Amino acid sequence: MSDFYSSDKLVEFGMSMGIAQQLVKTMNEVLKNMYVPGAMNPMHPPIGGYNPPAPVPQVFYAMLDGKQSGPYSETECSRLINEKKIVKETYIWMPGMNEWKTAENTPAVLRLAALAPPEFKPHN
Predict the structure, then answer these.
(1) CA distance 116 to 78
(2) Could you tell me the pTM of the whole model?
(3) Bridge partners (DSSP) listed for residue 109
């Protein structure tokens, strides 16, 4: 009867881990170079084959000063967030949405707000 902690078992385990790591590395390389037609974000388009259309830029509409305004690009929307013109209570609509929602309930706007730098306050 062999012991789990015997040197033979440890060597066997170590070799198994090494093989598993090589398999993972190989599979990651294969997946990195794979193209799936119809995928939202293909890794690489095939050479001389189908080239998927460029992604449609995200646009935002906002209710500012009681008026519908826009469309705004992500850059413009970020600027409005930094200028505090778009706040969490601001109503936002984007293509694909069924209705207007507040900025705090619109994930794309929350992402932009999270990426916005904080207001600079110099230290005295």
Answers:
(1) 7
(2) 0.54
(3) none
Residue for token pair 């119809």 = 38
**4-25 pLDDT tens trace:** 445 565 566 667 777 878 888 8
- Cβ pair 62, 72 in contact under 8 A: yes
**C-alpha–C-alpha distance, residues 83 and 85, integer Å:** 5
pLDDT tens for 67-103 read: 999 999 999 999 999 899 999 999 999 998 999 999 9
User: Rounded to the nearest 10 degrees, how much is the dihedral formed by the CA atoms of 110, 114, 118, 119?
Assistant: -20
For the chain, the three-class secondary structure string (H helix, E strand, C coil) is: CCCCCCHHHHHHHHHHHHHHHHHHHHHHHHHHCCCCCCCCCCCCCCCCCCCCCCCCCCCEEEEECCEEEEEECHHHHHHHHHCCCCCCCCEEECCCCCCCEEHHHCHHHHHHHHHCCCCCCCCC
